[in-house]
């Protein structure tokens, strides 16, 4: 509880504590209205692409939970997409993290955490940043869809999250992280530490094949965007340069160079 300002009359509890030599009483807990306002302000601070993706993910989970759709209608398989023209599976495979529950909450939080950090830090505050982040998601999604028949992964939300984790870890290589309160690692080792932990938890390498494919796609993006232009100065350029029309669409007008 803050001390009263000059000219203000101290509340009775505060004055009594001072006279008795005890510490002032603690501030009252926030009201339900205050907590609601805090949650609303935190939601408003979520960057738009991450927020839209999270909203779609939650919407799909609610539809499945209320039996309006089935998980069998959401997974990706080339035969149903290209022969039966069920093209929505190209998107829903990235939006389904399983039925509502603790596992779903963990996966959604995991995805939002690293998506938000990338969108705000690596892509935020620069011209065309929002469009560049969309290019990253489109590139990663396309690569994972191509690899899906090889890895036998019907749902690709977790591999996509590992793409984001890998890129964040490479761009924040000096950050130290506590892994489940058991081990401290630097950021570049985070994706592989999570893979090893998942392997030990499930007892099968097959359970983490999708996560490994996410690391592979993340490294491919990192090489094309970050390594190639830096190391090959004589002719190297960003091979995934953001189209100008997409910048105009998502970030507003741009000045011609």
UniProtKB/TrEMBL annotation:
Source species, domain of life: Eukaryota
Membrane topology: Multi-pass membrane protein
Biological process terms in GO annotation: response to stress
Pfam families in UniProt: DER1 (PF04511)
Family matches, as SUPFAM superfamilies: Rhomboid-like
InterPro entries in the cross-refs: DER1 (IPR007599), Rhomboid-like_sf (IPR035952)
Similarity-based family: Belongs to the derlin family.
Function: May be involved in the degradation of misfolded endoplasmic reticulum (ER) luminal proteins.
Protein's name according to its UniProt entry: Derlin
Organism: Moesziomyces aphidis (Pseudozyma aphidis)
């Amino acid at each position: 509880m803050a001390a009263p300002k000059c000219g203000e009359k101290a509340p009775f509890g505060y004055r009594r504590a001072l006279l008795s030599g005890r510490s002032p009483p603690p501030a009252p807990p926030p009201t339900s209205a205050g907590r609601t306002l805090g949650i609303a302000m935190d939601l408003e601070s979520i960057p738009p692409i991450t927020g839209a993706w999270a909203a779609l993910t939650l919407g799909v989970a609610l539809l499945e939970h209320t039996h309006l759709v089935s998980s069998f209608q959401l997974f990706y398989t080339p035969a149903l997409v290209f022969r039966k023209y069920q093209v929505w599976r190209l998107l829903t495979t990235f939006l389904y993290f399983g039925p509502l529950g603790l596992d779903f909450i963990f996966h959604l939080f995991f995805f939002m955490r690293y998506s938000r950090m990338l969108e705000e830090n690596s892509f935020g505050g620069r011209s065309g940043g929002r469009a560049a982040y969309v290019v990253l998601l489109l590139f990663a999604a396309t690569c994972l869809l191509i690899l899906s028949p090889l890895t036998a992964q019907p749902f690709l939300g977790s591999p996509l999250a590992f793409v984001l984790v890998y890129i964040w870890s490479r761009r924040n290589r000096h950050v130290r992280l506590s892994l489940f309160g058991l081990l401290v690692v630097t950021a570049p080792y985070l994706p592989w530490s999570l893979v090893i932990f998942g392997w030990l938890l499930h007892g099968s390498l097959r359970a983490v094949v999708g996560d490994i494919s996410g690391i592979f796609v993340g490294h491919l993006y990192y090489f094309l965007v970050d390594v190639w232009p830096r190391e090959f100065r004589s002719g190297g350029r960003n091979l995934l340069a953001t189209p100008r029309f997409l910048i105009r669409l998502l970030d507003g007008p741009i000045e011609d160079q």
